Amino acid sequence: MQNASDSSLVGDEYEVEVGPVAHGGHCIARTEEGRVLFVRHTLPGERVIAKVTEGDEDSRFLRADAVRVIEASKDRVEAPCPFSGPGKCGGCDWQHVKPGTQRRFKGDVIAEQLLRLAGLTPEEAGWDGTVAPAPGDKLPPGEVPAWRTRVQYAVDAEGQAGLRRHRSHEIEPVDHCAIAAPGVSELGIEKRTWPQMATVEAIAATGSSDRQVILTPAPGGRLPLVELDKPVSVLRVDERDGGVHRVHGRAFVRERADGRTYRVGAGGFWQVHPQAADVLVKAVMQGLMPRKGEMALDLYCGVGLFAGAIAERVGDRGAVLGVESSKRAVEDARHNLRDLERVRIEQGKVDQVLPRTGITEADLIVLDPPRAGAGKQTVRSLAALGARRIAYVACDPAALARDLKYFSEAGYRPRTLRAFDLFPMTHHVECLAILEPVKKDD
Ligand SMILES: C[S@@+](CC[C@H](N)C(=O)[O-])C[C@H]1O[C@@H](n2cnc3c(N)ncnc32)[C@H](O)[C@@H]1O
Predict the structure, then answer these.
(1) Buried b (16+ CB within 10 A) or exposed e, 427-438
(2) Strand order of the sheet with strand 233-237?
(3) Quick check: is 92 catalytic?
């Protein structure tokens, strides 16, 4: 993002020694005058020329790209993707870093957030400090896990699909995304033009051959006749109300996890890494250890992933209540779990639905909120239900740490914490905290 003010420092260059990794895919450095820089495309310990990309004289910190490396870290590699680098595609943050070191960086960020926002050391959080790769993602040097089963391409004025540059509306033209799953790459979105379109989202389901393309026309744009080499369903986003409508084929894709098939309608949430749903279900079940006859809540339940897994385990005498705000996802969840009689799905926001249900206690709770986390009020009302264990699935370690602090104030502490690298090459990381009530004599 260019800063146009008179005091803009965009374009200025500083030679700096690079400090630690910070949350967001950059490292911290200071200029000789003491200005704080968030520098991308570098690693801790490097000496680089950092060119300012955002900020002015009055900014608390400046954003910058390392445009020249003077002293390289031993953990630096040549980025396997030619579209990665200063000013290019903004999708990946760590292409230039060895995969094991990427995971170490993510671990450093989690540790820093836990300490700063929750006052927890790794030991106190029940975490061994590691970030586990997804099964199959440990590859020979130079090879990149092709994990993105959902890719949103932006389309330029000529109808060419590309990927957005970092913090920008500008588009980097690409002929292939290195981290796109094979099912997405095979659709060849980059190989044809998309006149009058603003974005094209490609989805390749896991465990079924379903492929889907969701088109968003540019303002006033008309839908093109879409003919791809592969069988694919096509949907379009209505620019007036944001609704997603079927053009041809199915209005959903079928995903598989934990031995069940889940229908996911357009725009509905499903984990992007093909192993993620299985990895998380397994870890949540290991952490909660559901018992026959227990009553569980699956909050922010999407299309019912954890509700389905828990319901199978608590059996006919148990019960599961799922809560989800998206109407479409609720329809899918009810359809997906229709064989499980003791599952009920309620539509609405967690903080509004829970009081309405009249539920005053639960044995187990899973919550998997969006990036912002659950927040103080919701955490308090969950703690009041007295669950013997709570599984908190988090895609943002900062939000997790904030909510862990609220849980601690409400009498829950982490029993274990695990972290998974379900977004290789990017700064994103998934965490799972299993919480339990603090005992009186603790
Ligand atoms: C990270 S997704 C998790 C979905 C599901 N647990 C899964 O793994 O597939 C978060 C979900 O929460 C829903 N959501 C967002 N805000 C919500 C709220 N305040 N109350 C209930 N659901 C919400 C979103 O629609 C989305 O489906």
Answers:
(1) bbbbbbbbbbbe
(2) 171-173, 161-164, 150-155, 197-204, 211-217, 233-237, 244-248
(3) no
pTM for the whole thing? 0.96
Name the residue type at position 34.
Answer: G
* Whether the Cβ atoms of residue 138 and residue 147 lie closer than 8 Å to each other: no
Residue 30 confidence (pLDDT): 97
Ligand 1 binding pocket, CB closer than 6 Å: 269-271, 300-302, 305-306, 323-326, 329, 349-350, 368, 370
Nearest CA to 408 out of 107, 112, 114, 111 is that of 114
Token look-up 């490609």 returns: 202
- Please state which architecture CATH assigns to domain 105-136+275-437: 3-Layer(aba) Sandwich (3.40)
Residue type, 61: F
Strand pairing of 26-30 and 13-22?
A: antiparallel
13-76, what's its fold? Answer: OB fold (Dihydrolipoamide Acetyltransferase, E2P) (2.40.50)
| Ligand 1 geometric centre to CA of 276 (Å) | 16
The 10s digit of each residue's pLDDT in 377-420 is: 999 999 999 999 999 999 999 999 999 999 999 999 999 999 99
